[in-house]
Amino acid sequence: MNEIFFLIFAFLTVFLSIKLSYYADLLSKTSGVSKALVGGIVLAGVTSLPEFVTCFSAMVVDNPALAIGDIIGSNLFNLFMICFFDIVFIKKMIFSNTSRSHNIVILILILNYLALYLFVSKIFDFSLLSIGFPSILIIATYILYLKKIPKFEEESYVINEDGSAKKTVVKLAIVSLCMVISSVLLTIIVNNISIAHPSFSSSFLGAIFLGITTSLPEVVTFYALINIKSYDIAVSNIIGSCLFNLLVLAIGDIVFLGYPVYMFSDNDTLILVILGLLFLVSCLIINYRKRCKNLFSYGFISFLVIVVYLVFWLSKFL
Fold first, then answer.
1. Residue 272: which of 99, 73, 118 has the closest Cα?
2. Residue 232 and residue 38: Cα distance in Å, rounded?
3. I need a labelling partner for 258 at 20 to 30 A (CA). Which of 19, 130, 172, 184 fits?
4. Exposed, middle or buried by CB within 10 Å (0-12, 13-18, 19+), for 10?
């Protein structure tokens, strides 16, 4: 029965995500809100709310490893989808039409992941810390991100005075609420399914079941935005979601009573963090590329990321 409900809410989440991307793009055109702000904060925040609920729910049920797996797995899937769509739409050469300012966010993510690696690899003694250093760094860099993001987008728009922008905001809010409810229910269903597989680690279950499932809104939104040629909003949304997901984990670490949440990580978590670092560096290179006639050389890095990602998950099931 859970499988049937999963298919129903998965379809509903996909449909609402498409509508969400449409209204977000419309908002950027009918108001003075920049594309970077719409994609990096509005869309990123809304599509990451399922991860927020899932992360804190996992901590409430005293399973922080599941929360870590959810967040890191979700981010890894988001980065994988950036490379996947780069190949799917390779003739459009998406990243040759996006702002280089996205690299600032990617560099922030790389810095955060380096801090996560130091703690997940158990290099530091957790008993000496009540709050993990990664959490402080993540929160600080996210505040910096909020202050700088309006300056990322140089293009400006004329604000509509006919009230269309306000109507769009209302529609965006309604669709966002419905999408969040649908995604949360979808997460609960997937969590119930994952309970039937106790032989896998909590971080693995969080990454493969919760992480990928709760990333569906970002992925579908990314795809829909590419189709309507809103490349900057699409990229801002998906990398902004990665940053917001880490913020969720950082907040969870601060409110989590006892030891830092990072000490509950395992070998699967460490591998996910290392892969995340490699994928972020790959995305940084991808966003620096220029147009070229040789499609193979243009998409080689993205293709390599796709292969590594698929081989990693296949190796876990074989």
1. 73
2. 10
3. 184
4. middle
Which DSSP letter does residue 278 get? H
Q: What is the tens place of the pLDDT at every residue in 99-129?
A: 777 888 899 999 999 988 988 887 766 555 5
Fold held by 2-317: A middle domain of Talin 1 (1.20.1420)
CA pair distance 180, 137, nearest whole angstrom:
28
Q: Which residues contact 253 (CB under 8 A, 6 or more apart)?
A: 131, 132, 134, 135, 260, 261, 262
d(CA 110, CA 283): 11
Instruction: Kindly compute the dihedral angle of the four CA atoms of residues 252, 254, 258, 261, in this order, to the nearest 10 degrees.
Output: 50
Does residue 160 have a pLDDT over 50? no
Question: CA 216, CA 238: separation in Å to the nearest integer?
Answer: 11
CA separation for the pair 217, 34 (Å, rounded): 21
Both tokens assigned to 4: 């049937």
Distance CA 276, CA 83 (A): 13
Indicate the DSSP class of residue 199. Answer: T
pTM of the predicted model as reported, rounded to 2 decimal places? 0.79
Do 265 and 276 contact (CB within 8 A), yes or no? no
Number of neighbours of residue 271 by Cβ within 10 angstroms = 18
204 Cβ contact list (under 8 Å, min separation 6): 69, 268, 316
